[in-house]
Amino acid sequence: MKNIILIVMAFLTFFVLGCGSGSSNGAGSGKSSAKLLPPNDDKIYFGAFPDFGGSEDRVSTKKIKDFEALVDKKITWAYFSQNWFNGIKYPKKAIHAIHRAGSVPFVRLMPRSTDEEGSAEEIFTMQKIIDGEFDEYLKKWARDAKEDNLPLLVDFAVEANGNWFGYSGVFNGADVTDDYGDPNYPDGPERFRDAYRHIIDIFKKEGADNVTWFYHFNYASEPNEEWNKAKYYYPGDDYIDWIGFSLYGAQTIDEEWDELRFSTQLKKYIKNYTELNSTKPVALLEFGVTDDHPGGSKSDWFEDAFKTVLNNPYIKFSAVSIWHENWKNEDGTMSTLRVDSSKKSLKTFKRLISNERFLSVAKFK
Question: What is the pLDDT of residues 241-255, one digit of tens each?
Fold first, then answer.
């Protein structure tokens, strides 16, 4: 009788542990399906790029823990780049480091063969992706993600409506309309759209249903011309789970200040978002501002940004993700976007992010 009782208890324990709670940052069980849900009511997820280095891929559990201790709050996700100049391969080590920290891994697929900016990418072009030249690598990436069975957030070729990354629309056909696809559609954005669709189709065919797909544009297009609007790059609601964008203040001390206030930009370029005609949840995937600027206060910029995120008539934000990094510019000046660039900036950020509307734990379906 005693043995029977022990067997029953063991079975019940296994059953309870196996069922899980259905809402966590951890691995799922059974079928690898885990799409990020927007938070309930007026809540907002809090994510970060927690200073993973200039290459954006020096991921460590310690970096995450250090950032969380700095701001006195856990982050929902940790954001990092999977640079294709290191190979198109599933970054398992980085993903598991983030998972061990209790955060959700957010991977930026960066189709670049160098971290130099301002010139066309020669190897990982949008056309080559569309033509299937990297399919075997992408299929392996997808299979490895499926086998690992952790909830993943992924975006591709971020800020393609800018003019800095070599994979941007400006370097892949720009406003030309008769060299690829639809003769009424600008080739640069059209190639990006189709390349992203191609990648997502591969992941779907491989059964990597544990990936939540983000479309990540820059809030202000550069160049600010009709052909380069974010709407032309969008893969569509059938492909994308979340909409996201970058919106920075002055990143160097020689950039003007007032026009790059968060609220000013959000109002000025709102059409870049509304013209997408998407019903998907929205994330502020990158934001920040340099310190010691002659035109204004970083602390005040944070005040304006958080006030606008929490109370604005334009966009309902379901997530925000701070860019926490300093770097040295070619002219010797520093861009100081870390939240602790000064005691005042850190104090302001900690107070603002402590608002109970900002959440640390993600929900998946």
Answer: 999 999 999 999 999
